[in-house]
Amino acid sequence: MQTSSAASFVTMPMRQAQPPSFSAREFRAALGMFATGVTIVTMRTAEGLPVGLTANSFNSVSLDPPLVLWSLSQAAASLATFRTGTHYAINVLAADQKALAERFALRGADRWSGVESTPGVCGAPLIAGAAATFECFNRSRYDEGDHVIFVGEVERCTWRPGAPPLLFHGGRFYTEHPL
After folding, report:
1. Which of 62, 75, 91, 166 allows an S-S link to 38, with CB 3.0 to 4.6 Å?
2. What is the pLDDT along the chain (179 residues), one digit of tens a residue?
3. Do residues 120 and 130 lie in contact, with contact meaning Cβ atoms separated by under 8 Å?
4. CA distances (Å), 113 to each of 50, 67, 110, 153, in order?
5. Which residues of 13-24 are buried (b: 16+ CB within 10 A; e: fewer)?
6. Could you give the C-alpha distances from 147 to 1, 43, 98, in angstroms and in order?
7. CB 109 within 8 A of CB 68
């Protein structure tokens, strides 16, 4: 019995991905079409200093156990702290926290000046006014491409019912959205 080339293509799995047919700029533009919420991920260094950064790569993974993920560039100055620390907090920003998102995205800025926060149960700063917070055990890390994927096991969470979210789409923040 002969098989057609189309049939053999279907039955033979690809061993590796094909080279991309797009530039890094085109890929980034396409990713920007996915609207996301905006978070600030926080932790304390071994010396007790607060560390934080803006991230929109946050996502749920599992309800049982409660797991979430986010990713951080391999080039980030805070990578070593997040790799070795045991706990961090993910602060989901509310619409009125756009200035905080911009500040925590800057390199070399004094990110914490005037920021109201309280320590979570394991010490990670919880940013006042956040729409939600997730206090996480730093469960696992995966090096993939130019980022590290962090999976956190959520130990505590809080939220403000009705808090309008800060959104990010197409390289811009949005503080209002249609209901």
Report:
1. 166
2. 444 445 545 556 778 999 999 999 999 899 889 999 999 999 999 999 999 999 999 999 999 999 999 999 999 999 999 999 999 999 999 999 999 999 999 988 889 999 999 999 999 999 999 999 999 999 999 999 999 999 999 999 999 999 999 999 998 999 876 54
3. no
4. 11, 31, 6, 29
5. eeeeeeeeeeee
6. 48, 18, 24
7. no
